[in-house]
Amino acid sequence: MQIESGVNLKPYNTFGLPALAQTLVRVGSDADVRRVLDHPTLGRAPKFILGGGSNIILTHDMPQVVLKVEVRGRRLVEERPDAWIVEAGAGENWHELVAWTLAQGLPGLENLALIPGTVGATPVQNIGAYGMELQDRFDSLDAVDLITGLTVTLGPDDCRFGYRDSVFKHALSGRSLITRVRFALPRPWRAVRGYLDLERRISESGVASPDAQQMYDWVCAIRRAKLPDPARIGNAGSFFKNPLVTPEQCRDIIGRDPEVVHYPLPDGSIKLAAGWLIDACGWKGKSIGNAGVYDKQALVLVNRGGTANPVTGGEVMTLAKAIQTSVYERFGILLEPEPVVV
Ligand code: EPU
Question: What is the rounded distance in angstroms from the CA atom of residue 298 to the CA atom of residue 278?
Answer without folding.
Answer: 6
